[in-house]
Amino acid sequence: MQLIRNGEFVADDFATVGDEDALPDGAVIVSLERWQKERDALTARNTPLGVRLKSGQEPSAIAEDIDKLKVVALEFPVYRNGRAYSYARLLRERHGYKGEIRAVGNVLRDQFHFMVRCGFDALEVADNITPEIWAESVGAFSLSYQPATDGREPVLSLRQRLAARASAREAV
Amino acid sequence: MAQHSRKGAQFQALTANRLADGIVVYLTSDNRWSESLQDADVAEGKEAGEALLARAQPTVDDNIVVEPYLFEIAREDGGIRAASVRETIRQAGPTVRLDLGKQAELPGVHR
Amino acid sequence: MYRYDEFDYQIVNERVAQFRGQVARRLSGELTEDEFKPLRLMNGVYLQLHAYMLRVAIPYGTLSSKQLRMLAHIGRKYDRGYGHFTTRQNLQYNWPALKDMPDLLHDLATVEMHAIQTSGNCIRNVTSDQYAGAAKDEIEDPRIVSEIIRQWSTFHPEFSFLPRKFKIAVSGTPDDRAAIRVHDIGIQIVRDGKGAIGYEIYVGGGLGRTPMIGKKIADFVPKEDLLAYLEAIMRVYNMYGRRDNIYKARIKILVHEIGAEEMKRQVDAEFAEIRKTGALHLPAEEVARIQAYFAPPAYETLPDESTELNKAVLADRDFANWVKSNVAAHKVPGYAIVNISLKPIGGTPGDCSSDQMDAVADIAEKYSFDELRVTHEQNLTLADVRKKDLPAVHAALKAAGLATANINLITDQIACPGLDYCALANARSIPLAQQISERFSDLDRQHDIGELKINTSGCINACGHHHVGHIGILGVDKKGVEYYQVTLGGAADEKTAIGDIVGPAFTEEQIVDAIETIVTTYLSLRQPGERFIDTYRRTGIDPFKESLYATH
Ligand code: HEM
Ligand code: SF4
């Protein structure tokens, strides 16, 4: 596994810990269950915190804690299960979450583009993914028809700007 | 993997589709893939069937064919005949376009 | 019709390049079949019985002559000289090689076509009314909103891995020719009390293993909010649709399990939130831009009556029969809608040779403003033909073997590819349709029987819409032998109904006789003016059961 964060291949500074494991020093990512059970203790540690949501655990479950979290890891149990795309958008657009949203689980190269558009800014990917593959996959489409979370201007508004510029030119 | 053979089938052959063009092929006794069912190696009994399947694996790994499976056949007049309608159609071509598929090239394959 | 601008071209070309890379990685062995399969399925490439199959999208069924010529060319160059028009207004090629697929898609892209989202668990090609723009009682051309939806749904990042495939259909007239109530989302264009245009929304219709009729969850979604509303439905489905069982994954099951009321409540709540952000607000300028592409063609001012037509009807009985069944009323005086049957007696429903495609393209260019439509009943439509040109159009169609006069009659059947092509099939569909067609080939008898739709599917997936055929036939497999189960009373129009199973399945030898028994039973029961479906609705299934099984 490697971590790509904001397009850079970086060392993972968070440890993902199981529900029964002892907490290591430093930044950790825990399950939603552990977070709900040990919220106060975890917050008191004063180290960066992340929560990992399984498919079926909705972002609303952590909506009130969002300021306390540096990472929300959303799980793709299989690439075919696309629930986490909606979860990521809801975290950003509905709950105003600004921290890292990390794609974990079955994260395939042909989906990087979609994930980034939905607000994922970190992805845990297989070891055979190279920076070249990353660049090719994430840049497969230079244009998008619909607005999403990445702020990319959809084709529709590009058209409107083009039309506005054309009519401005005519007016001159 | 698709299940296309009967449990107690006596004779079985092995089929797959060629990766590059999808054409139906059969494993021969010298481990090549032929477009004709008549060239197929025939396995008698369960174990021989499994051995056939195992022999196909290297060509699957080499990306020559995809989706190999065993199916039941009958030996008839020195020839090989698929037992099910499905495999009969697969080895010959659509019954509604006798001018297409293998039946167009290999006379007599349809029924 | 819609034309690509530079942006549309770029997206499609980038897709071709991406798929070219994926095919190359597969052929070189860099990708295993397990890894590649979902990728090819995102682009309409299936592995069928004899070879690969490619499904090409024909957005809302509209084609230019140039596009149809390209489809003909592709049929010759990469396939075996023909294609199959489907119940989702698409075209399928049955024999293309995987290694040729990138070049094929490149050729398609030169005429603004693609295979994007023609399979996979995403929003599929949007279907619509083949009479769009020409229908008399049309509220608005449904292709405008269909194109808007096509763009919004193309590579939608959030909705490319839904629990299951997702199909949307749009109807712009009260008469529903797009079968909107058997789609995941059905959109009916309506006008409110003040004359504003908006959308009535049905959700949760579908066929397959568990056929369901869509439930209405909105009476009027304003135009500018349509995409926000659709995004709300999709999000609810993406989050709550079942993923544990492929047969329970369609939205129809979600709607069925939580109820239409609850579905409506959740969608409304999500819609309210999405609407607040304004991001999906549909600007009037964009609607106008797309609407301009579907502006009415340059109709001439003509008298509604055509003496040429009247004369030809009297002179030529074949022609008269064809006009009677295949020609429909047009909203503009002096014009008519021509339906081209792809159901010749004894032929394969929906199949069309490359030569025939070229012929239709020429006819469309000359007589129907260079444009044609594919229908969900697997026929073609020329939407804007001058009445006085009908004899010439008929003659040209006849020369191409395309003048079969049977639209909406018993030989105008829908049939899926079935066991002759399809790897999922239990039984053959096409030969059955052919035998029925031959049994009822007498045209006078067909007219006597009147409107009757027979739909056949080779397995429970219901690609042949058997649930909504007046007579539906479903192929089942009993120990390696083909059997056929019959349903009665289905309908796909504004009075959509799922057919009732009549009794035990029939063998291949029995099935055509069984259909004949059903037809003669209807003829003996019908009251003046009743179509088969009317009689069935009045009498119910019992008399049919009796005549089918009492004698056996
Ligand atoms: C030959 C390859 C084909 C394959 C493998 C295939 C596969 C399937 C499957 C698996 C379903 C059921 C999906 C579900 O209920 O979740 C389905 C439904 C359907 N297919 Fe096909 N199909 C094929 C060809 C066609 C053709 C040729 C047509 C049109 C003539 C067609 C039109 C449809 C329609 C209308 C449905 C029903 C939609 C619904 O359930 O609401 N398909 N297909
Ligand atoms: S209904 Fe079944 S047999 Fe017919 S095309 Fe669909 S999957 Fe194949």
Radius of gyration of chain A: 19 Å
Q: Pick out the low-confidence regions of chain A.
A: none
Large-scale geometry of chain C: globular
The CATH level-2 architecture of the largest domain in chain A is identified as Alpha-Beta Barrel
| Distance from first to last alpha carbon of chain A | 57 Å
Summed up, the helix count of chain A is: 5
Q: What is the fourth-level CATH superfamily of the largest domain in chain C?
A: Sulfite Reductase Hemoprotein, domain 1
Q: Work out the strand percent of chain C.
A: 15-25%
Biggest interface reads: A-C, 37 and 39 residues
> Could you tell me the strand content of chain A as a percent range?
15-25%
Distance between the termini of chain C: 55 Å
- Percentage of residues assigned to helices of chain A: 25-40%
Total discrete domains of chain C = 4
**Count of the domains of chain A:** 2
Shape of chain A: elongated
- Helix-strand pattern of chain A, N to C? EEEEHEEHEHEHH
Q: CATH class of the largest domain in chain C, please?
A: Alpha Beta
Question: What portion of residues of chain C is helical?
Answer: 25-40%
Please name the CATH topology of the largest domain in chain A: TIM Barrel
Q: Overview of this structure, please?
A:
- The complex is a heterotrimer of chains A (172), B (111) and C (552).
- Chain A folds into 2 domains: 2-140, TIM Barrel (Alpha-Beta Barrel); 142-172.
- Chain A contains 5 helices and 8 strands; from the N terminus they run E-E-E-E-H-E-E-H-E-H-E-H-H.
- Chain A has helices at residues 32-44, 83-94, 112-117, 131-138, 155-171, and strands at residues 2-5, 8-10, 15-16, 28-31, 49-53, 71-76, 100-105, 122-125.
- Chain A has an 8-stranded mixed β-sheet with strand order 2-1-8-7-6-5-4-3.
- In chain A, helix 2 (83-94) links the parallel strand 6 and strand 7 (100-105).
- Chain A is elongated.
- With 111 residues, chain B is α+β, with helices and mostly antiparallel strands.
- Chain B has 3 helices and 6 strands.
- Chain B starts with 10 loop residues before the first strand and ends in a 6-residue tail after the last helix.
- Chain C has 18 helices and 21 strands.
- In chain C, the strands form 4 sheets. In chain C, strands 16, 17, 18, 19, 20 and 21 form a 6-stranded mixed β-sheet that branches. Chain C has a 5-stranded antiparallel β-sheet with strand order 1-2-5-4-13.
- Helix content of chain C is 38%, strand content 17%.
- Chain C is globular.
- Chain C is an alpha+beta fold.
- The relative contact order of chain C is 0.09.
- The N and C termini of chain C lie far apart (55 Å).
- Chain C folds into 4 domains: 6-109, Sulfite Reductase Hemoprotein, domain 2 (Alpha-Beta Complex), CATH 3.90.480.20; 134-293, Sulfite Reductase Hemoprotein, domain 1, CATH 3.30.413; 307-399, Sulfite Reductase Hemoprotein, domain 2 (Alpha-Beta Complex), CATH 3.90.480.20; 425-549, Sulfite Reductase Hemoprotein, domain 1 (2-Layer Sandwich), CATH 3.30.413.10.
- The B-C interface holds B 2, 6, 17, 19-24, 60, 62-63, 66-67, 83-86, 89-90, 93-97, 100-101 and C 26-29, 33, 47-52, 80, 95, 97-99, 348, 419-421, 423, 425, 427-428, 430-431, 434, 480-482.
